[in-house]
Design a protein that fits this description.
Layout lengths: L1 H28 L1 H7 L5 E5 L2 E6 L2 H22 L5 E6 L9 H15 L30 H12 L8 E5 L5 H15 L5 E5 H14 L2 H9 L3 E5 L8 H16 L3 E6 L11 H8 L2 E5 L4 H14 L6 H10 L4 H18 L5 H7 L1 H23 L4 H5 L5 H17 L4 H7 L5 H16 L5 E5 L2 E5 L1 H12 L4
Helix pairs in contact: 1-2, 1-3, 5-6, 7-8, 11-12, 11-13, 15-17, 15-20, 17-19, 18-19
């Protein structure tokens, strides 16, 4: 009875603590942002000194992590005396809970943030990203060996090889880990090295702010007088002509000084829509390397490292079971391990294969196809110079409509998801929308001689439907 009472008290305390954390987050981000990005969009659970945040898809998780991670950490520190790490996990059950108006508002918010053309531009913090990841903690396997070796070469001889180093791959595969690891290793080798790490979004916002405030000289001095410039999510520069031109001049200045530039993106430079030819040529003039989804041995290594970091002993048979069934990316792997450990703690049972099977029964069945369709929509959106949030919205411009139809067609072709599941994932659309989208693409294939056209920032673009589908499929089929 005493053990049961303690367990009830623990659960009650976790619920109260979670309520206090969510209230604090709402205060810090504002009620409008909270309703847009957290209410009905996330599901938070406290498990074993972790705050696990369930999200409907990887794009939403990445966006919340990049925009609001510091506020979430502040909220935890404000209401809790214990330290909690934050992890994001895709929860398919959340896909159908968002209303169309909320999805439209999210798309508009993303568009306004990455295309800051209005009169007001929010000033960014000097360097809001905490560089906590190290190269020595990166688990190397066949899927990322080349990227890791290139990263070490850049640290050893910056500016003399692979300039720029351009790393691309799907969400949660380790691009940010490598970029932050390069920064930390470079500083460790020489603390006087001038290192600047920003996202493509932050570079854009700072440039727009400098233009409006008449402080371009300060902006250029800050970005060009560095030894190492590292930009994550450089695909955010797509469709912004002035920003692209400024970045090209910035890159040329750094390269001329024999200094180093490192970039990361979800897609290959040639697959980033609405990017200038001169910038694409600059990107591919260096070392372009792809990170693929980790193989079984790498996944096992990642899980063992995470378990060791948490000071937990996990039997090899459980490690192999998780690694064999969760194949999407590193975040999903870590989320699955955390779920197993939390399950064993709450049920007060030892970690074994049977317990892991129980803990991950729903997760394994539901997470596979959702993660896969996230890759499809991210690659498709990047190619057309839009965002996954646009695909989820109700907007029906020619470009968004085409990208949405292609995403649904490819999801139906390359996953086991049904039409209702695809529609629900892509903005809670009904199954008829997914069926019509697939029929639309099939009709295009039946008239393959007629090129497909869409609108970009540089004007009208055209491409044969077969070539277009092959380009998109080539970017994600090897992740299956």
């Amino acid at each position: 009875m005493a053990a049961l009472a303690n367990e009830v008290d623990l659960e009650t305390n976790c619920v109260e603590l979670l309520d206090n954390i969510t209230d604090s987050i709402a205060d810090k981000v504002g009620q409008n942002c909270y309703k847009m990005w957290f209410k009905n969009t996330t599901k938070m659970i406290i498990e074993d000194n972790y705050l696990k945040i369930g999200v409907p898809n990887q794009f939403t998780g990445n966006w919340i992590e990049k925009k609001y991670l510091s506020q979430i950490n502040e909220a935890i520190n404000e209401v809790s005396v214990r330290h909690m790490d934050i992890t994001f996990v895709v929860d398919p059950e959340l896909s159908g809970k968002q209303r169309s108006r909320q999805l439209d508002n999210q798309a508009a918010s993303v568009s306004q943030t990455i295309n800051p053309t209005g009169k007001r531009v929010r000033r960014q913090e000097k360097n809001p990203v905490k560089l906590r990841m190290k190269l020595e903690e990166f688990v190397v396997g066949t899927s990322n060996q080349l990227a890791f070796n290139a990263a070490k070469m850049v640290v050893a001889q910056p500016g003399s090889h692979f300039n720029p180093l351009f790393i691309h791959g799907g969400c949660g595969l380790g691009k940010t880990h490598l970029l932050q690891g390069i920064c930390n290793a470079t500083i460790a080798n020489n603390p006087q090295t001038r290192v600047l790490y920003v996202s493509g979004e932050e570079f854009t916002n700072r440039f727009v702010m400098a233009l409006k405030s008449g402080k371009l000289d300060l902006f250029r001095h800050r970005f060009r007088q560095v030894d190492l410039l590292v930009i994550d999510d450089v695909h955010f520069l797509a469709s912004k002509k002035a920003t692209q031109e400024e970045f090209l001049h910035t890159f040329n200045a750094i390269d001329a000084a024999n200094k180093q530039v490192v970039l990361a993106s979800d897609a290959h430079p040639k697959m980033i829509g609405q990017l200038s030819e001169s910038l694409i040529n600059r990107f591919i003039s260096g070392m372009v390397v792809k990170i693929d989804a980790p193989d079984l041995l790498t996944r096992c290594g990642i899980l063992r490292q995470r378990a060791a970091k948490m000071e937990k002993h996990v039997p090899d048979v459980v490690i192999e079971y998780i690694a064999d069934n969760v194949r999407a990316n590193v975040r999903e792997l870590e989320g699955a391990l955390l779920k197993v450990l939390a399950f064993t703690q709450l049920m007060r049972v030892p970690i074994d294969l049977n317990v892991a099977n129980q803990a991950l029964a729903d997760h394994i069945v539901k997470s596979g196809p959702v993660v896969h369709v996230s890759d499809i929509e991210t690659i498709t959106a990047t190619f057309f110079g839009i965002t996954p949030a646009d695909l989820h919205s109700s907007r029906k411009t020619r470009t968004i409509s085409l990208a949405r139809s292609l995403s649904m067609y490819l999801a139906r072709k390359h996953t086991s998801m049904s039409y209702p599941e695809i529609g629900r994932f892509m903005g809670n659309k009904n199954h008829a929308t997914a069926i019509l989208a697939c029929k639309k693409v099939k009709a295009m294939l039946a008239n393959a001689d007629e090129p497909v056209s869409w609108q970009s920032s540089t004007g009208k673009r055209q491409m044969g439907i077969i070539e277009l589908l092959e380009k998109l499929e080539a970017s994600f089929t090897n992740k299956r």
